[in-house]
């Protein structure tokens, strides 16, 4: 089994080609523009790793990995429209560059293309893979909707938050690994364990991402630190702070969220620090990380085959950026 | 083979059920709202008719018909966002009622659900049906993009217009019939003929729809007469008028499109009448209608089996509303 870096290079070689026809450039140029913005390609490489955990890498894994990456980019195009985000990876978002209507359609056609890709797998694999993929795709939409719902609510429970991030970001990592496992010929039980590994890892990753949005090093993080605080995003940090803070700090926090003063980020961070949100976040992240590793451990293949996945988990979770 | 009306009632009975889970109502209520707005259900019934042309109605045709109707509703939700349409069938559009972001997501999840539906067909039918469906879905997106592109252009050729309406509205009728034919066990050749019948009929229907938008009886048409003229939509009528009109009428038409005076609709209609656009439109519609019927004729099944499809064609094309 090869490392993430090795499989990333295998994937990039395969992915770096024409995904859309030459005609109708007013629709397909925006789609191509999105793809060339790049990305970490964690999900498609997870498909390849899921395959290699159980057998030799199949060309079908590359096809499925392509579908997963197209799907992920579809969600990014539409999320950016919903978030009215001007930039992604330091470049204009699709809707900023081409207008909202075209971005909407370019996202739609990218979703169609991801199904079209999966449909070229061996005929006997098409139904199980599309069933898992469609369930996951619907969950990702549900997660995005819940995230938007939560922004309008004053309070969200920790349980609701965990459910939302599981749907919005974690299930796709689980499904990517499982699709690879299906192609690798894994048993249903091993497939489920690998899915669980990916899903728990995805939640741990998102908890950390929320943490870094508030406490990350601005030089390494790549996004505006405090961005979530500015838009009153209901992250684990806010939810915990509202639960842990004493009455006066709680009142101050709610007031800051309502009035949006200039020094909002600074003041909210101080409340977070006073409530020990650091430690709480580490605990939650560790809980999910341990659950992920336990499921990886339980998969019935030789431990050394699992090493690249364990390394990937460490890398995703201990990144400072 | 049963008539459109009989199969419509079969379809409505099947379709009138829960398509989305009870949970996450903020996402799925908007999707359900869209479906209960109703519609003519021409495309799903076409799936059933395509099946019955070649064999006894299969439950699989009802599943595929459901997928086609979900897909059509997905396109309507997203088109209404792009067109900023406040109303559909006299009711608020999804984005007017629930906001653009939620409408965008509700459309996405409806597209996912349409694939999920097709994926429950017999395993051997899933790949060919999803291949045809995905090709068609991409074409519908291309057609919508071209339609938007044309609104910004001063001139569009008749050929470009015909290509655009073929993609935007006609291919889905062709594909619906062909999916039914696949389920009915038709030969590849018969499938293609039926697809051609649907596609040509769809173009004839759209030409007529453009005509009725300008010249229809306001009481019967159900939409605002002259709506296309108001927004400078490049329909067959505008394109022909710009080609046929003498220099001064042409100049007046372009001026009207630029300045949007209060009596624009009235004056544009007069130019259309002066150029004999009526007759031209009838000619174009008849051309496609005849092509449709020729393909229906060539299908190798007993003529009496084709009667309901011929009746549907007459009904769609000779409607005055």
Characterise this structure.
The structure is a homodimer of 321-residue chains. The first copy, chain A, is mainly alpha-helical and 321 residues long. In chain A, 77% of the residues lie in helices and 1% in strands. The first copy, chain A, has helices at residues 4-15, 25-36, 42-54, 59-83, 94-98, 100-118, 126-152, 158-183, 188-215, 218-221, 227-230, 236-244, 247-259, 264-274, 277-298, 303-318; strands at residues 87-88, 91-92. Chain A has a two-stranded antiparallel ribbon with strand order 1-2. At the A-B interface, helix 4, helix 6 and helix 7 of A face helix 4, helix 6 and helix 7 of B.
Largest interface summary:
A-B, 37 and 37 residues
Oligomeric state of shown chains: homodimer
Total strands of chain A: the figure is 2
- Give helix % range of chain A: over 70%
Mean pLDDT figure of chain A: 94
What structural category characterises the helix and strand content of chain A?
Answer: mainly alpha
Question: What does the overall shape of chain A look like?
Answer: globular
Please write the string of helix (H) and strand (E) elements of chain A: HHHHEEHHHHHHHHHHHH
Low-confidence stretches of chain A: none
Radius of gyration of chain A: 20 Å
Largest sheet of chain A: 2 strands, antiparallel
- Strand portion of chain A: under 5%
Q: Helical segment tally of chain A?
A: 16
Strand line-up across the major sheet of chain A: 1-2
Distance between the terminal alpha carbons of chain A, to the nearest Å?
27 Å
